[in-house]
Each structure stands twice: as structure tokens, then as C-alpha cells.
Amino acid sequence: MNALQMFRAGHCYLSIAAHFGTTEAEIEREIHKPRTDERIASRCDAARKTEDTKVKWQRKKAELAVIRRACA
Question: Chain-centre distance of CA 12, in angstroms?
Fold first, then answer.
């Protein structure tokens, strides 16, 4: 089990540091970096999904415009 998994299991920085024989500051850095990376990846995924939805609706709007012109 790594520091991040222990943190998610409910352990505090102090107990994790004692388990690994290091300082709290080092454990905090070990935990903070992957959590930040996960948040950034999550935000990128959300932005990508939003962009995909925008493109889909723009395509649908263009198709409907073609249909309206054909029917007019």
C-alpha cells in the first residue's frame, strides 16, 4: 500500500510518515502530486466531453438547417 492509498483509507500524514519512516512534509508531497494530476486529468476529460457535445450539437444544427432549406 502506498502513501496515497493509506491516505484514502483514512490515515493521517503523521501515521503514514511513521509507517514509511519519513517526514510528514515528504508524505504530503507524495500525496499531493498524484491527487493534483488526477484532478487535472479529470478536468481535461470533462472539457473534452463538453467539446464533443458542442461539436455534436453544431453538426445536428447544420443538418437541420439543410433539411429546412430543402423543405422551404
Answer: 23
Please determine, for residue 70, whether its predicted confidence score (pLDDT) is greater than 90: no
**pTM greater than 0.70:** no
Q: ∠ CA 57-42-14 to the nearest 5 degrees? A: 165
Distances (CA, A) of 41 to 18, 35, 52: 30, 10, 16
d(CA 22, CA 29): 12
Alpha-helical (H) ranges within 1-72 are 3-8, 13-20, 24-71
Residues 6+ apart with CB under 8 A from 28: 13
DSSP 8-state code for residue 22: S
